[in-house]
């Protein structure tokens, strides 16, 4: 007796009879194989997913970027150290100008002049190496971005560097002169001729230069926070009144207690906040296209 072909089509029974039982044809694996899933925004350059990286791999990647950034800082330091004397003269120029040459900068240690050059080279070296540092920052966060977003590496590096240097320049050209004039007036009001240690002067100027350099990165931060969905232009516009209050409080702390000085610092910061709103508006995250992905007549189907 031969084996019955279970896949053969059923024969039609005679009129009035019942159809014989039919065994369903076996389902081949090809019919249930899922469609390949296109990797999402976490796809890295090698075709893998950033989410598949272990904690150790993340730390290794961070260590690699920190090492490269340190090498760039070392190179910037060496370049700046070769011209440390004119850089130091430029750093002390604002306070010398507002004091009309009456200020005396002193050193109280045997090696203070040498360490002063090192500090000056470190400050200037950071600004010189800032493009390479921002490049390493980009390389670390790029695997978590979409493919079209990774193409913005050059605009990110250029804009971040420009705003960082612009912040330092604004601090040197405007804030230093306003702040030093106020502090020196306090000495004059009590009849004291100021004598300032160069180490204290450099510590004060370095903090302000870095603070303003980072503050001027506000539009860059707005761009990435917008892309991550953490803020949008509507939220920034809603809190604009509070931002004005905070900006003027910061301006009052960093500048002498007069309206002119406060406006000289507050107006650029307000301009940066407005620019950040514009950046958030241009690069806002579009709403999810749920209706486009939903089946036609989904609500009324059935």
> What is the gyration radius calculated from CA atoms?
33 Å
Largest sheet: 2 strands, parallel
Helix content: 55-70%
- Assign an overall shape: flat
Unreliable spans: 37-51, 287-302
What labels would you give this structure?
302 residues; 2 domains; two-stranded parallel sheet; 63% helix
Give structural notes.
- By secondary structure, this protein is an all-alpha fold.
- It folds into two domains: 53-215, no CATH class; 217-285, no CATH class.
- The chain contains twelve helices and two strands, in the order ααβααααβαααααα.
- Strands 1-2 form a two-stranded parallel sheet.
- The longest helix has 37 residues, at 153-189.
- It starts with 54 loop residues before the first helix and ends in a 9-residue tail after the last helix.
- Residues 37-51 and 287-302 have low confidence and may be disordered.
